[in-house]
Design goal:
With about 260 residues, the chain is an alpha/beta fold. Helices cover about 35% and strands about 15% of the residues. Strands 3-4-5-6-7-8-9-10 form an eight-stranded parallel beta barrel, surrounded by seven helices. A two-stranded antiparallel ribbon has the order 1-2. The site of manganese (II) ion has 5 residues, from loops.
């Protein structure tokens, strides 16, 4: 509806604009914040490569209750340390509205994950606060359901919503974890003014497939990308198989700058 809108996010390094008319914004970082050394090191490496935001999970929505659940509040302090060290904006996920205030002391964008896309009470609460919201598509959500979830946030008074496609469930997950629906880019452009992000890391589940899908997303017109990066993927506490090394991420950023308008 109408012209694409922009979401302008203040960060210590200056404002970053998510918009169809602004340069591509790249968000990068590990699935989980594991310790101070790794998060600060990752922040430095992704910043040097051109990322504008560090994304790392403190509260993790894991399929198994026995899997690493994230370090929670103490991880928020580590994200603050990485922010202080680099000036990067921070993105982290909220799972429980009870944590929202603490998360917002550190984060510049609040992530609502795929599993909470239709947690309507959570959507109302992130809509009633000031930080921009990154709304990931539910793994089996239709586009209308996704847009209505965004509408909950807008209706609660927060106009700053970014829509993130992260792959959907289809009949075959043998080779790729999800089916990355890149057709949503032109579809969303025709249906909504909100900025678009593509997450090829969760979208494919395999690091070797991430670069080509990142490039395809730019070709299709995405406004931003989320890429999982870990200093030692084989040792990652979550999502190692889909995480790029800092070296591979740096190379990808150079490749992207040839086809896109990444800084
Ligand atoms: C994540 O971003 O690390 C995550 C858990 O993603 P999703 O909600 O898309 O599964
Ligand atoms: Mn992850």
């Amino acid at each position: 509806h109408g012209e694409p809108s922009e979401v302008v996010v203040p960060t210590p390094n200056g404002p970053v604009t998510f918009s169809a008319f602004a340069p591509l914004v790249v968000v990068a970082g590990p699935c989980s914040v594991e310790n101070e050394t790794m998060i600060v090191e990752t922040a430095r490496r992704v910043k040097a490569a051109g990322a504008k935001f560090l994304r790392g999970g403190a509260f993790k929505p894991r399929t198994s209750p026995y899997a690493f659940q994230g370090h929670g509040e103490s991880a928020l302090e580590l994200l603050q340390a990485a922010k202080d060290a680099t000036g990067l904006g921070i993105i982290t996920e909220v799972m429980d509205a009870a944590d929202l205030e603490k998360i917002c002391e550190v984060t510049d964008i609040v992530q609502v994950g795929a599993r909470n896309m239709q947690n309507f009470s959570l959507l109302k609460k992130v809509g009633a606060q000031d930080k921009p919201v990154l709304l990931k598509r539910g793994m089996s959500a239709t586009i209308d359901e996704w847009l209505m979830a965004a509408e909950y946030i807008l209706a609660a008074g927060n106009p700053n919503v970014i829509l993130c496609e992260r792959g959907i469930r289809t009949f075959d997950n043998q080779y790729a974890r999800n089916t990355l629906d890149l057709a949503v880019i032109p579809v969303l452009r025709s249906l909504t003014h909100l900025p678009i992000m593509i997450d090829p890391s969760h979208g494919t589940g395999k690091s070797e497939y991430v670069p080509s899908m990142a490039m395809a997303a730019i070709a299709a017109g995405t406004d931003s990308l989320m890429i999982e990066v870990h200093p030692n993927p084989s040792k990652a506490l979550s999502d190692g198989p889909q995480s790029l090394t800092p070296e591979r991420f740096d190379r990808l950023m150079q490749e992207l700058s040839i086809i896109g308008n990444a800084v």
